[in-house]
Write a structure and sequence with these properties.
Elements lengths: L1 H8 L7 H24 L1 H14 L4 H21 L3 H18 L11 H10 L1 H15 L6 H8 L6
Length: about 160
């Protein structure tokens, strides 16, 4: 079990750490701010509730608070570089659901092929999904708390 935890906290150290760190922190701040605003701003709460209803999700009031809370929490953890892979994975699920329930319906019905693909990549959720995958694979980078925590765990046959 310790080995699994140690692997999830491990991160690559190399010349790409600065871009990864900038992506992780800016992406985390974006989701932290977005989720927090959906939790505390009445207009944003209503917009989030409307989005959940429009998406056809069950228990829309609960889901609006739950999703916004997860965006804020896991965005904050990304800023710290703490549990980065888990945080990015949770945000990945949120964005896949957002893309499949709301975003994809913004693509005109009469487009196909490369035009459809182009429309897909214009959707912000598509970019968020790609960034979540990047962080899920790469981890926090050397300037995250994951790396420090990983050092505290006993080395077990790595």
């Amino acid at each position: 079990m310790t080995s699994i935890i140690a692997r999830s906290l491990s991160t690559q150290v190399g010349r790409y750490f600065l871009p990864l760190t900038l992506i992780r922190i800016s992406f985390g701040l974006f989701f932290f701010a977005s989720g927090l605003n959906k939790l505390i701003q009445p207009d944003n709460q209503q917009a989030m509730l409307h989005t959940m209803i429009e998406a056809g999700l069950p228990y829309p009031a609960f889901m609006a608070t739950f999703v916004a809370g997860n965006e804020a929490l896991f965005g904050f953890l990304l800023v710290l570089g703490l549990l980065s892979r888990l945080s990015a994975s949770v945000l990945l699920v949120i964005n896949i659901v957002a893309l499949m329930t709301i975003g994809i319906h913004q693509i005109p019905a009469d487009v196909t092929g490369l035009e459809w693909y182009s429309w897909l990549l214009y959707l912000p959720e598509s970019v968020y999904i790609l960034l979540c995958i990047l962080i899920s694979v790469q981890g926090s980078g050397p300037w995250g708390l994951d790396r420090r925590l990983g050092r505290l765990l006993p080395a077990t046959g790595r």
